[in-house]
Amino acid sequence: MLFIVADTAGVGILQWGVTISNSDAGVPGLFQGLWALIAAMWLTNRYVFALNFLVLGSLYLTLIFLINRFWIATPIFLVFCTVLGVIEQFKVLSRYEAVLPADFGFLGSDAGNIATFLPAGAGQTIVLVIVSIVVLIALNAFLQHMDARRGRIVTARRISRGASARIVGVLVPALFLGLFIQTVGTVGAWGNSFAAAMGDIPSMWDSVYDAQRNGTLISFARQLNPKVMDEPADYNEATMQAIVKRYEQSAKTINASRKNDMNGSTVVYILSESFSDPTRVPGLSLNEDPMPQIRAIKSSTTSGLMLSSGYGGGTANLEFQALTGLSMANFDASLTSPYQQLVPSLSWTPTINQAWGASRNQIALHPYESSMYSRSTDYKKFGFSHFWTLNEPEVIQYRNRIDQSPYVSDESAYNSALNKIQADSDGHQFVQLVTMQNHMPFNNWYNNNQFVATAASGSKALGKSETMSIETYAKGMSYTDSATQSFLDSLDAMNKPITVMFYGDHLPGVYTTAGAHGDNSIALHETDYFIWSNSASSTHDNKIADSSYSSPNFFMAQMADHMNAKVSPYIAFLTKLHTKIAAMEPPVVNKIQGWTRIPAGQTIYLDSNGNPMNANDFDGATKQLVHDYKLIQYDITAGSHYLQRTDFLSVPSSKTVAQSSPSSNLMTKAASDVQHNTDSTEQLVQTVAAKNGQTSEIGMRMVAASGR
Fold first, then answer.
1. Which end of the chain is less congested by CB atoms within 10 angstroms, N or C?
2. H or E stretch including 39?
3. Rounded to an integer, what distance in angstroms lies between the CA atom of residue 587 and that of residue 604?
4. Is residue 426 exposed (0-12), middle (13-18) or buried (19+ Cβ within 10 Å)?
5. What are the tens digits of pLDDT across the range 619-628?
6. CATH match of 237-651 with 3.40.50.2000
7. What is the value of pTM for the model shown?
8. The dihedral sign for the CA sequence 569, 319, 658, 342
9. How far out from the chain centre does Cα 207 lie?
10. How far is 507 from 310, CA to CA, in rounded Å?
């Protein structure tokens, strides 16, 4: 009975750690988190309390048999839970983020800065906890003194029998605990299936919500050992060197006709939350076009439809693919959120923004919580020098909302980005902007909403709640439409080259009627994108071929094509792959992103006309490219990083973009090492310049040093 009480207390303490007290909940703040887990058993038939009780109890039981003193093991166990609970509470209150496995690396590298994360009132909490621990230890010491057996669990008279019982008592729960932690993050493994059967619903976009919903221990455990990828059978250094040589030649061929350098311009990546043309949704009719201006922009520049892996969620996965050029389709189904499960543990994180060199040239903005998807941590690894959000210390400048909407408007987000672009005097900068205005849920926020949603002729009638959500979303889209045009107009007036990569991450999860039909799966995973350059850019009127369909992993290759910019061997590879496969994503379904990847079904491949492709029908060249992609992605994310020691990711540049950090993995190269197709006059000029100590060209490897 005391074991059950102590184990329940341990679960409760950990849940208190991730609970933000609500005085209106009717339950004291200390017990709100625990009560929510317990109540879920009869309210939603989710037995995650029992799951956390069992897993934490395995640790407790192992400790009891190892020490063989109940009154000693119990305070150790409860003190352990209390310390973790306090750390969780401090991190949640100061950064709205649960403790993640990657945080343990912080103890070794930045332990001296831990005090900076302590919230107001932390001192009082620490004193209270210390007093409680002293009282707990004293109480258990007293109970041990009163207990005639002194808390012994195993009391066999024969030493061999007692030792055997203790060994079994230690091994059985320890093995269960170890095997569960090893497999809970792997789709199809017994630990993952067992957790799902108990009601675990991964909610990876928000670590605090995930811990509140599924239990602090389970939320933490699922991120300890996710399976990244299967190692390709032919993966070795020789294979990777062959890949480097193959696509170095491809880069030479492409660069022979390219005139510009990618980082010679300002580039703005805009992830527009839930942006997608609602008039394309099957069975839906709107009384007015919500995006006429963006439709006109798309018709005049490089544009098309983007195949998305998400529906109603999964924003960071699309963002990850756009920044890295890697594809979710190559990852194991267990890796559902690279931002949380992969990036924190990587020592090498190559992203497109790093081609702009010094971190001061790489900035990011997001008018919401900085901790969402662990962006505040990951962006530092990617090389961004600043990340402006709603949180201290870097608060985004404009934060206006429209009518009753709870989210910062796109107009404000654009104005904040515009302010940073105008302030840049160098004329080359990478800006990452993630908007928030059109985030779910949609609840009749806007005044004077003229949009009316109805079922298309011959289609099933829409539900009342669905109709309201769609109409609210359509009004938000119209605000985005106007704000985007105004933003581009402002950029067009600037006397420096600027290119914008604009894309919607996924459709909003409001199309219940259309989503009920499997035939609509592809249509409900296609968003809008365009690549636009201002009048100061030499490629202002450019419109590249084969842009009708894409996926975010191909964006950097398409952007280089649109900008007529020279490419690295890596971008040359993506360029070649895109000529064979227009878009690719893992299997998808028309339901709100639940962060449990679909283990069944094949990867979705689309051709240049948007038609599904069967991987079994690929020609030899396409199969080779797909296999090379897996080798490249494995080396970067789970392998030996052979490519890191090559120029595979080196982007040609005429700008001096040396990293500010001396520990950065950065390679600079002279012009003759990178550009092999200039005429003799250009080579002579470059040689003279080099002899005079001038930088003529730098091959910038897209590498961020670990811990930047």
1. N
2. helix 29-43
3. 6
4. middle
5. 999 999 999 9
6. no
7. 0.76
8. negative
9. 12
10. 8
